[in-house]
Amino acid sequence: MHYERVGMELRQLKYFLAVAEELNFARAAERLxxxxxxxxxxIRKLEEELGVKVFERTTxxxxxxxxxxxxxxxxxxxxxxxxxxxxxAADASDGRVGRLRVGFVSSASYALLPHGxxxxxxxxxxxxxxxxxxxxxxxxxxxxxGRLDVGILRDPERVPGLELTPLxxxxxxxVLPADHPLAASREIAPAELARFPxxxxxxxxxxxYVGRVLEAFEGxxxxxxxxxxxxxxxxxxxxxxxxxxxxxxxxxxxxxxxGVVVRPLSGxxxxxxxxxxxxxxxxxxxxxxxxxxxx
Amino acid sequence: MHYERVGMELRQLKYFLAVAEELNFARAAERLxxxxxxxxxxIRKLEEELGVKVFERTTxxxxxxxxxxxxxxxxxxxxxxxxxxxxxAADASDGRVGRLRVGFVSSASYALLPHGxxxxxxxxxxxxxxxxxxxxxxxxxxxxxGRLDVGILRDPERVPGLELTPLxxxxxxxVLPADHPLAASREIAPAELARFPxxxxxxxxxxxYVGRVLEAFEGxxxxxxxxxxxxxxxxxxxxxxxxxxxxxxxxxxxxxxxGVVVRPLSGxxxxxxxxxxxxxxxxxxxxxxxxxxxx
DNA sequence: TAAAAATACTCCATAGGTATTTTAT
DNA sequence: ATAAAATACCTATGGAGTATTTTTA
Lengths: 295, 295
Hints:
Two copies of one chain form a homodimer.
Chain A: H1 10-22, H2 25-31, H3 36-50, E1 55-57, E2 62-64, H4 66-93, E3 98-104, H5 112-123, E4 127-133, H6 136-144, E5 150-154, E6 162-177, H7 190-193, E7 198-201, H8 207-216, E8 225-229, H9 232-240, E9 246-249, E10 260-264, E11 270-278, H10 283-293
Parallel strand pairs in A: 3-4, 3-5, 7-8
Antiparallel strand pairs in A: 1-2, 5-11, 6-9, 6-10, 6-11
Chain A binds a DNA duplex through helix 3.
């Protein structure tokens, strides 16, 4: 403290409220588990601090001044707000309240995400859940910068500072216009597919996943990529429009457009949906990932 | 303090906010005009008090936990609320903000009150003015019990604990139905009027005023009071309906009903509007009375 | 190894206690 | 005369300072 101006303290507000309620210093002191003289002193200090008399007092009667009346209302609210802030901090640290920003790739939005979200919401009704659709690459960046708490990505590359939890794995399938020559085959070899125009995801946005797809085509002819897309929905639209074929996770079968067919892609690697948490590692993030894996 | 649990203090909240903003104990301490070690200790105490870690810290990086983020928002608001409460108390004690409950008799509501209220509102825009119509007797009671701050009464009796300020004085007039036999006279003697049925105010509600009226009739025949009323408007209505005649302050001329006429009452005493303040004597009450007399 | 947080200690300002005086009814 | 607030004075808790150690990137 020393020579610094010290300022009002919550203790003084509580003392003031006790006196305002009892309108009697001795009784208020008793209620505060202290004696009367220091209470008198504390109120005088408060009044000096405010520059305003809050009580009109003689040795026989204590009553609030008008300024005191107004100050009382505000002081009551402040003391309650402090208690609420305390409670809220405890709730937040136990994961009963809070905010969780979850990124997800579009292919997670069919079964995995809705189920997990429903489960999590039931367990954490006072947690605000913010769902942000984003490509894997964008999510990695956002997680590292703390703009997301959890991400659901496809085939992310290992990055220091991200903790990964595999969720589901599935095969890759060829996606073709219904009238495509290869649509007659029950199964398609990558080398055959590679002879046709292709629609793929943009590499920088989904480096891991696109890497898998390129792996499937390894050793074959040079690819003819006529279009790069950002969303699975766009890829499907382009295929339906006959722009080209593509390679997508098998779960795309749950969301097919008319005029588009899928065929197994022989010898292709598997693709994985993976949950990622920033190194900071929020407790709520863990709970969310648990809700996803509990499905 | 001794063995009592002490609780959170505003100082701790301010320290917390400084650290939350700087994310660096030494810089926050500097901003708070103190040194780093006691700041570290104060934050640890806050965390003990909350039962929650608000900062995730190593010697290299300080960052808010999720609970800390939430606590920060509330703490900011609390600190601002305290400053606002302080300001408000100062404003209230200087009469810039506040509440003023003013009682008034109906006969004040024609010229005196509207003008005074307009003036006062212009001078005190942030003061909430509550206008309560009430008879003089009721106002005396309310002022003594602190339910009103100021009253505008007619001919109040001197009461210990009330400070009176005369506002205006006026004569008494006879109020008659237009077709009344006495309506032909230019001026009416009380003794004549006393021969007809009368409508008067209720004595207990307006003891001073009714006393004046009875004084006017003193020495004449016994009065025939067919109705006692509470409001001036009611009296006028009853006169218009032919129930009887009455005696009212001359200013009733500003608010006459059709079918009602007024005539001077010869030799009648004067009646006074008087402002009254409770002994407590609020500064705002004085200002209001000044606004009334400044007209 | 360097920057920053944590620890150890010292000191004194002040919250709170006890005893007493003042004041208003 | 009495109850209650104000004053005087004392004690000791704990907030803040200085010096130093520990930690991690």
